[in-house]
Each structure stands twice: as structure tokens, then as C-alpha cells.
């Protein structure tokens, strides 16, 4: 670890003040929330902001509340730890608690925030390295180089850094919407549209924008959800294959013939964004789940996953884990079928 | 034979003397040392794997505000250092041989200025062809990494092969008649195994604060397993006498063999001498993963001849250990050669073991030292033999295992061997029927041998006027509990309590020579010197008492800090009366001393060549059985429980033993399943704890352990070691469990899910 570079640290007290500071200080400024991902990258010289704007002093940004008309509102500074035990979340969206619990270690979850998890930078063996390390070879594309070193051809002009958050895929599967605020105004973005799939610029948040709120729509309450995560050590690691599934099974209790509705499958840790497997809803919506359909869905998910050798684990195995997790997720949905409608 | 019941202190758990200080944060480590006017050093490192240095320009760095000194090899005396092959300079001399090699160093007023200065140093390289694979490096046409290898000073007898090309060290064993052995075999098994690099992963990075005191003496505060060797190396590299150097090691934040090196000391010392200011050099964690040392990776070829009934009759082993660009501890191959026969009697055995240069970070000492590699091969193959001959794996091992009185394949006669009992006890503890328990659940077994103890050490025991004592040894406590154990040994010998013993370790001004802590030698060898020093002090005390009480020494005995006249219960003198408030009536202060320096050659020199470490006085043994759950769909291996049975002689401190066993098998678990320093074109791809994973406390399975009754007549109170042998069985035991569950034999470490899935696929086709 290198020492942290020098920077100016600001702690505005309102979100508008923060947005103004962010705009005024230009592209060399960054917003910090929990810092668990940002500070190591600053030590490695990947981020070198002149100004760091903390949101810690702004009231209510860590609030989590249920709104009867809109749904679940999560403040960007809510810690992942707080999501694990929040009563509203456990009542309406227990899968959010499940995914939050899967992140890092308890110490990290005490600091890490929802906003940080959503805006998590992509990761790669060739990107998350110090300047000394980078000096030993041609530059990584994401750091200004010509080609992506992780791509098998070695000549790709596209960055293949991996998006490896646990909570974000679940929020995508729950159709979450986020609010971005800047001195120019406010806009709402579907989380699904937030991610670009380009490892070098993984999301559409402009540098002067701040994520101010996450809304999980009311209509999603009670939907079945599950998150499966593969990591090398269950004690601490990033996901190197993750599957988030949400769906409803409609039909009379204890009927094996319940029909799938509103299914969404999102895979994580195997692409540059939380990847919605788009062929799943047309395959399954309106149908009763059976082994053949689940197998087909699992193969679709496996096919969509394109892991490279730029993070921990092995490519073929990570694809296999997406397949196994998808099957397991649907099996869990069926087993829970009597409790959902 | 257990004699622990006869002991007052030995065999009882005594809490570690440094436990509270470490928990509260009071314990002082090298990075806690801040001296007035202290400068910060950083090292400039090679960005290429193999190149001739054309020029180094340090002008810009020297001119940067706040920079006090910049050093390259041009500023240093012309020496090289190493443990057996003296091949490395403090800075690269003429050539760089791996990415991460030290080329220059800077001392500046703060860390950031030092880092900035390093970036300003310009080096022009003429790149050379590099070689990264040890087998390729052995080919005649391979690039030669050390052009002057034949001229290097070495501290052992070299074979001719070890002076040419990239082989820097070779050990051979030739016992019996190998051809006749294979001719008499009913079955021959031949396998090739591969093992990866594993980093010692101590939490505290290498660190030195070097100071020059008012008399011009060099004072070193560091984190090390070998202060006296540090002192000797500094003396020879810097050209100053030992009397002008004091090494004062701090608490060690983990070593595991990795701190049996001298990495930060010479650079910090040279910068301090140059600037006449204290200099601190602490490696970044990235430097730890690129520029420190790892367990040797390698390729192991093993051919074994077996009779129908399972009797091992011939073994032909070739070990190719990749030692990286320099060879700080090439004799890992010698330990590998010894361990490659396993804990078995094999009458006809040939081993050729090579330490080979490649353009990669260095291989060095790491817990298990040379044995985990060889034992992975031996114990994996033993299970293959058992399966193909349809013999129970434990029965096959029992049939072939060494017993006391047997000779090892090196010709060394063994006096303390209870491997058989460890196998039987482990078998009983898990109620072993057969390895396979359920479709996806299986047991895996492995046993092993480790060369224990040896090398020079010494100790001083001084009695204080109140009857308490101080014991001093140059050995180190790196967390394994040496301080506590030396206190127990001293207390037992003197008949006082552990609380009455002050243990002084490491400081070269206060302690006598010890070669360093490694190879299961702390408790066994240093412990023996401490015991003998205490015995010497005790004899002096008894003589003083005999004089005062006007009886013969043989009429006296010691109990509770008193010397009793055996013939009369109420006739005694308290220690403090004998030590007389420091006012000695006769003679001087009571200071016992002793040294151990095993120099006898235990091996048959007609059988072995290149045995750089002559003096292993005894051997430790262990059997581990793992219970695993293996998911055939995902290839994931979960170790549910590990059962460990050790032959470590007398147990000195039960809690310490437990720590050593759980710690060792956790290192073995990481080695087996996921630890791997991945190197691509000479560059470490995962130089961090985040990407180069070791097990955390949460990843440790349930552990049940036991010891077998043994009293090693050559150890202190019958004790042997335990720190290394606890590492070597996990990888083969887990590989054996995977094979038992799925019928998939993994011959390369780590045993990853991907390899298991591939194995399943190959089996299906």
C-alpha cells in the first residue's frame, strides 16, 4: 500500500451544497461515502482526486423508510450492515438483506454503503494495481492504454473490467430506480439503465452528479427474491459469480402448476455490469416451472456469462457456478411457492 | 513413555508472556518505532524480468527537496550474500534478474517525498531473454541468469551440475540398488506433480529502523527470525565489525520462515550510515508479494516400485524446485529430498533434487520448508497405490512406515519415531472404516516426516539475588511462543515457577548466538541449550549450597526456590540466602551457560551428496485425516473437520501446541485449496492479500488433535518440534479425499473447483 496522496477534504451540510462544491471543483473531485473501495484505489493511484467531498455531515442520507405510495426509499449512505437488520427491508424485501449480508466481512459492511455499492468501480487484475506495477508493462486500457490486457486477443479496444457488487444485481432485479442530483438539476434513472457494460466507464452518472436516493417500487413488495454468491473464501471476498433472481409464482396454494410472472435474472461478477439475462422473461413468464425449463434458463444464464481471467477463480468454473446457481435459485423459488402469490 | 506427570512446569499450559501486550496493543513492533529526525526510505525496483543495467541516473532524485540520500550498488561495498550460495547484492549489480528486484533506494524526510524520488530515478536497461519455467531453465540453451555462478562463494560442497547453467544447488540420495529394486517390484507407479508458489503472508511487513548512535554504532530495530545472522550479514556487507552493530528485534508480527531473511536491514543501515540520521524502511504489502520470498514452486517426478502385498521396494524421485532469481535458501531441495520418501522405509531409493534459477521472485523459507511439496507427491501416490492394489490407505501406510531403529533413506539411523502410533490413533479418532462416507463425502489421510532441530545455538541463565532468574538466547519469538517455552524449561530445571523467569531474546548485545528460528528447532534445539544453561546454573548454586551447608552436593536437592539437605527435612537454605543480596562470599555471580552445535554427520556420505544441512538430530511425525464434502456439480471442496495426531515428543505447553497445530494445518489448507502467487511473464498478477488469498479464521474447519506418547532422549525434557510438520499433510490428505469421493486425482496444487470439474469431465469421456 502506498501512502494516501494529499487532497482537500470537504464536508458540506446539505446535498445542494455538496452538488455545488462538486461542480465548482471540476473533474478532479470525487464524492466519498464509506470509502471501503475508494481509499484502496486512491492508495494505488487509480483515483487521485484533488478534492474529496464527504456526504457524512448531510442529514437523512442514511435513512431507510417505507412509503406507502412509492415503496422502499434507501438513502445512499445507509450502511450495508444497517440493511441486514432493517425491519422494513426484512418485511418487504428480505433479499436485499440477504445480498447486503453477502458483501465482504462484518467490518467492511459497517462502513460500506448502498451508494458505494451501486457506484462500485469495475475491477481487474490489470487495473487494480499500483503505478509501480503498471510501469512494468504496457498500460491498461482503463488507465489510458491502447488495448485491454485482460481480453484473450490482447488487442481489444474495449475494457473488460468486472462489475463485482452483490447488492446492485438484486436492486436491478427489483426494478430499483435511483435519483441523481447535480447543480444542473435532478434526474431519475432506472438502475437497469444506469450500467453501461463498458468496464472503462461502467455507469452513466456524470462526474458532477451525486446519487441521492434509491427507490424500490412498492409494486415489487412481496416478490420472491434470492441471491446466490460464489467467492473463494466465504469469509470476505468479492463475488466472482453471482445470481439474483426475482419472480412471482401465481396460482392456488400447494399447486405445482403455479405460473411464473415478473421474472428477472441478473448475474454479477462475470461481466462489466450486473447483467440482466434478457431471454429469461420471454422463456418463463406465464409458464409453470419444470426441470426442462429451469435447465434451459440455467443454460441461458451460463451462456450470457463471459468471465475472463482478470479476477480470482477460473473462467469455466465461474460459468458453471452461474448455471448451478440459476438452477438452485429457481428450485428455491419453487420450494417457497406456497408462501408467495 | 510419558514423564510429564513428573514435571512441575513442563506439560502445563502457561499463558503466553506477551499475550496481554499483544491484545492491548502495547507490544512494540518495528513500525511502532519513531526516532527523532527519522528519515523514510523507499526502494526503486526493476520493472523488467531480465536485463543488463546500462545506466542509472539518480540526479533528479537527489535534487528533489527533502531527499537526503540515494544509493545504488555503485555506493555499496562489492559484497554478495545468501545462506548457502552468496549470489545477491543489496542492490542489483550489473544485471536485474526479476521484476521487483531492488535497484536503488532513497531516504527522504517523509514517505511521500521518498516515493516521489523513486519515480525520478532513471534506469536504462538492455533487455535479455528471460526464463520463467524451471524445467526450461535447466535446458542447455536456456538464458543463463547468473553468468558467474561457478565463481560464487558457496557454503557447501557443490556437485558439478550445480555450477553450470541455472542449477545452483543439487542434493542426491542413492541408497540400495535402484535397478534391482524396480526389477523386484510387482507394480511400478509413475506420476508427475506440480506445486505453486505460496506466500508466508505474515501480517506485519518486513521493516527496519536503522540508527547510528553517538559513538557511531549501528542500531537496528527490526522484525526478524535471526538477529545474530542479521548482525553477521550487516558486518560483512557493510565492512564494519560486529562490535559496532547491535540488532534489537522488536515483536515479530508473524514470520513463518519468511522473516528468516535479511531484506530491509542492509538498505536501511546503509542509508543511516550515509545520512547519519535514523532511517526507516518498511515494505509495502505489494513489495511483500513481489520482492520478498515464497515457498518454492516446482515439478516433482515420482516413480515407485511396490510388491503385490504393498511393500515399497524402490523409489526414484526427481525434484525440480524453482528458486527464482536468487537462492536465499536453496537447501529447501535437501529437505524436499529427505521428505520425498515419506515416513516410510524404502530400501532402494534414488533422489535427485535441483534448485533452479528462473527470472521470478525468490523462493525462500516458509513453514514446512521443502517438505510440503515432496509430501504432496509421496502421499498422493501412496493413496493411488492403495487404491490400485485394493489395500486400505491406512493399512498400506502402517505396512511401510518407519519405526525407531530404522534408517532413513539418507542412511541416518532414527531413534524417535512414532508415526505408526499417529496413524493408529488418527484412525481410531475418526472411526475409520473406508475413505468414502457418502457419494459426496470422504475422508482423506496423509502422514509425514520433518527434519527437526539442529544448528548452533547457545544460552545464558543468570540467577538474581531474590532467587528469580533471567535466561537469554539469541533465538526469536515470532508468535510461536518461544519466550514462554524457554521460560518453562528454565523454571522446570531450576525448580522455580515460570513467573520467576525473565526471558531475554534476540538482542545481540544481551544474548548469545543463535542461528535463527526455523526447522522445528526452537523448542528442541534452543530449548536444549536453555535447559543445559539452567542446569549449569543449578550446579553452581548447589556447589555454593554444599559449601555453606558443609555437605556433599549429592546430598542436596532443590524445591520451591530452596536447597534442601536430603537427610534432614528442616535443613535448607533459601535461594536468596545463597545468592546473598549479590554479596558473593565466594566465587562470582551465578551464570550458567551452554551451547549446542551439532556438527556430526548423521548421513552416510556414500549415500548422500549435497547435504548442506548435516545436523538434523531428530525427526517429527504426524498423521492428518480430513473429512471433506465435495460438490460434484460445482467442484467445491469443503473441509468439515481435520483430525491431527502428532509425534512431537513431550508436550511443553499444551495451549501452545494447539496453536501450532491449528496454525500449521491452516497454512496447509490454504496451500491445498487456493493460495497461489500467480506470475505471468515474470510479473506477480495478484500482489495483495485481497487477491492472493489465505484462509481467515472463519475458513478454518473444526480441528481435533492429539499427541502420541513419546520421549525424545535428545530433546529438552523429551520434546521435539511441531511447527513445520503440521503444515505438510493437508494438501495430500485433501487430494486423497477428493479422489475417494469422486474418483478424480488432482496432481497439481491448488486443488481448485475448476480442476475437479475438468477431472470429472475427463473421467466421463
Overall 3D form of chain B: globular
Task: State the domain count of chain B.
Answer: 3
Query: What is the molecular shape of chain A?
Result: globular
The radius of gyration over CA of chain B amounts to: 27 Å
What this model shows, in words?
The complex is a heterodimer of chains A (341) and B (765). With 341 residues, chain A is an alpha+beta fold. Among the domains of chain A are: 64-120 and 162-219, Uridine Diphospho-n-acetylenolpyruvylglucosamine Reductase, domain 3 (2-Layer Sandwich), CATH 3.30.465.10; 224-335, CO dehydrogenase flavoprotein, C-terminal domain (Enolase-like, domain 1), CATH 3.30.390.50. Chain A has 13 helices and 12 strands. Chain A has helices at residues 15-24, 38-43, 80-85, 87-92, 94-101, 106-111, 114-118, 131-134, 167-173, 191-194, 280-284, 291-304, 315-335, and strands at 8-10, 29-32, 51-54, 64-67, 71-74, 177-182, 185-190, 210-217, 224-230, 241-250, 259-268, 275-276. In chain A, the strands form 3 sheets. In chain A, strands 4-5-8-6-7 form a 5-stranded antiparallel β-sheet. In chain A, strands 9-10-11-12 form a 4-stranded antiparallel β-sheet, sandwiched between helices. The longest helix of chain A is centred in the C-terminal third of the chain and has 21 residues, at 315-335. The radius of gyration of chain A is 20 Å and the shape is globular. Chain A starts with 7 loop residues before the first strand and ends in a 6-residue tail after the last helix. The mean pLDDT of chain A is 93. By secondary structure, chain B is α+β, with helices and mostly antiparallel strands. Chain B folds into 3 domains: 4-26 and 455-596, Aldehyde Oxidoreductase, domain 4; 33-128 and 201-291, Aldehyde oxidase/xanthine dehydrogenase, a/b hammerhead (Aldehyde Oxidoreductase, domain 3); 293-454 and 602-764, Aldehyde oxidase/xanthine dehydrogenase, molybdopterin binding domain (Aldehyde Oxidoreductase, domain 4, 2-Layer Sandwich), CATH 3.30.365.10. Helix content of chain B is 26%, strand content 26%. Chain B has 18 helices and 32 strands. Chain B has a 7-stranded mixed β-sheet with strand order 3-5-1-12-9-10-11. A 6-stranded mixed β-sheet of chain B has the order 8-14-15-16-7-27, with helices on both faces. In chain B, helix 9 packs parallel to helix 10 (371-388) and helix 16 (654-673) packs across helix 17. Chain B is globular and about 85 Å long. The A-B interface holds A 1-3, 5-6, 40, 105, 125, 129-133, 135-137, 230, 232-237, 311-317, 320-321, 324 and B 45, 47-48, 99, 111-112, 115, 119, 284-286, 290, 633-635, 674, 681, 683, 685-687, 690-691, 693, 695-699, 752-754, 757-758.
